[in-house]
Amino acid sequence: MENGNLLEVRNLSKIYPGGSGVRNASIKIRYGSIHALLGNNGAGKSTTMKCITGLLEPDSIEISFRGTTYPWNSKDLKKHIGYVPELPAFPKVFTVHDCIVSYGRMMGLGKAEAVGRAMPIVSILGLEEHMKKRVSSLSRGMLQKLDIVIALLSDPDVIIMDEPTAGLDVSAVEELFGIIRSLRDRGKSILISSHQLRDIETISDSVTVMDSGHVIFDGSIKDLYASAGSVEVVAEFSRIDGKLMETIKRMQGVMDVRMEDVPNRISIAFSGSTDPCGYLRDLAFRDGVSLISCSRSQSDLRTAFIRMVEYVRGQRKDQ
């Protein structure tokens, strides 16, 4: 596997009438990796993906592939990128075979070449028995597989998947992620957006977090945990007053402090390798308070994502 970044997107901006859109977004995708693009609805994920693939013209963008900078929508660049849209859309009267031939023709492939390239992927994805079926008869999961077949016809190095798990049941999501892992194992790089954060956590090597059109984090999941708080602590005291809360908030490594529903119990997000329970016990003692209980657990991607977004929004309000 090659080292470094395969695809770099810098200064991507696309502003819609009314002011919403994406502002100065930058993303780096490494060779042979799965990179997750996370954000709430309206964060700018789909806009970012469509600008990269050439489906939507940005106001500004810089794209480098294997260290070479390309103009937006360059044919030389697009042949290296495959795209799986959120909503598969094929002519209802087409069969699976028709779709492969038709989309292959758009890529400059003859009928035999398109089918020849597609069949190994069709076999892997279990679509062989469906080749003569009309797409109108296929399930959402099967349509998603057909989209992947078509995206791979040009043998791209980068595959961009916009919410590929939308509308899929649990077993179909598990099967799809198995396919994505196999693509990575074949040396492909994948950029994927999804609301299935727990599943995304198990397959992703790195992540970009977007909020309100801005990239607020781009790096490894490990670094996201370190930035947003890698340890979650629930502590119960004999009493909690404003002085103790302020002291805890000023502790080194504290990212967030919240009151729990239970009286005198708080949850605290810590970053780094601090032993928070030991610190809390010392703080409580100095303030004449008893630490009744303290439990810690490792943060997950969903918690880290929410915390990062809320932290950045809080910083914006303070400015």
From TrEMBL:
Keywords: ATP-binding, Nucleotide-binding, Transport. Residues 7-237 form the ABC transporter domain. GO terms for molecular function: ATP binding; ATP hydrolysis activity. It comes from the Archaea. Pfam families: ABC_tran. The keyword Nucleotide-binding applies. Belongs to the ABC transporter superfamily. This is ATP-binding protein related resistance protein. It comes from Thermoplasma acidophilum (strain ATCC 25905 / DSM 1728 / JCM 9062 / NBRC 15155 / AMRC-C165). The lineage of its organism: Archaea, Methanobacteriati, Thermoplasmatota, Thermoplasmata, Thermoplasmatales.
